[in-house]
Write a structure and sequence with these properties.
With 203 residues, this protein is mostly beta strands. Helix content is 12%, strand content 37%. It has three helices and twelve strands. It has helices at residues 28-32, 95-98, 178-193; strands at residues 15-16, 19-20, 34-39, 42-47, 50-53, 58-61, 67-69, 71-78, 109-118, 125-134, 156-165, 168-177. The strands form four sheets. It has a five-stranded antiparallel sheet. The protein has a three-stranded antiparallel sheet with strand order 5-6-7. Strand 6 (58-61) and strand 7 form a beta hairpin. The longest helix is centred in the C-terminal third of the chain and has 16 residues, at 178-193. The two termini are 34 Å apart. Mean pLDDT is 83; it is low at 1-20.
Length: 203
């Protein structure tokens, strides 16, 4: 696992399950202003300099013209669960299957799992969050550890936040390439952790 994470930068860090996926410090522009986006009943916050990049539903920095996230999406599905905690402990959940996400995420390494709470007048809403990292199915030439036996470098990071709100499973999925993660990882994690949902009769 440590070898697979070796692609990351050496300045700044995001600690994940005892092994850091390091990122470069985000720019002042990303920290100075923000925009709240409401999507499918949920909401999340992005830096003010980020614009939607069609058709991928990612984001691009309007000043640099560079992509900062491959895709950011909110998924809402009906559920009989009353709280995300009904799935069990966050670290024991397989997000791809339990949340009905892209089946390819089943092969991802889970490098962090956590619980977050959203206080409100109607009670506290509980979120589970996960940090997933994927390697390509075929390692590029020259990007192999131990002759390929130990795998290759991560090329995709997926950040997830999910809760049960008003009878629905609400999931925010943030997808980033290795380059996007290296340069904007702190802002991407802040985006994921800003996810909020209406507080109804379940949570």
């Amino acid at each position: 696992f440590f070898l697979r994470a070796a692609w990351t930068a050496t300045t700044g860090s995001l600690l994940l399950s005892g092994a850091p996926l390091n990122v470069l410090a985000d720019s002042d522009d990303e920290a100075s202003s923000s925009t709240t986006i409401v999507e499918k009943g949920g909401a999340y916050t992005v830096p003010g300099a980020w614009d939607r990049a069609a058709p991928t539903r990612g984001f691009r920095d309007r000043f640099t013209g560079l992509d900062v996230a491959t895709r950011v999406s909110v998924i809402v599905t009906p559920t009989t669960l009353t709280s995300i905690t009904d799935l069990g402990r966050a670290e024991n959940v397989v997000p791809a299957t339990s949340l009905g996400l892209n089946p390819d995420l089943v092969r991802a390494d889970m490098v962090a799992a956590a619980i977050r709470k959203q206080p409100g007048d109607k009670g506290t809403l509980v979120f589970y969050t996960w940090d997933l990292a994927l390697t390509p199915q075929v390692c590029p030439p020259g990007d192999q550890f131990g002759g390929g036996v130990l795998g290759c470098s991560y090329d995709q990071i997926v950040l997830i936040s999910a809760c049960i709100s008003e009878g629905s499973l609400r999931t925010l999925v943030v997808e980033a390439s290795a380059a996007e993660w290296k340069n904007h990882g702190i802002a991407l994690r802040s985006l994921r952790d800003s996810f909020s949902a209406p507080r109804g009769g379940s949570g």
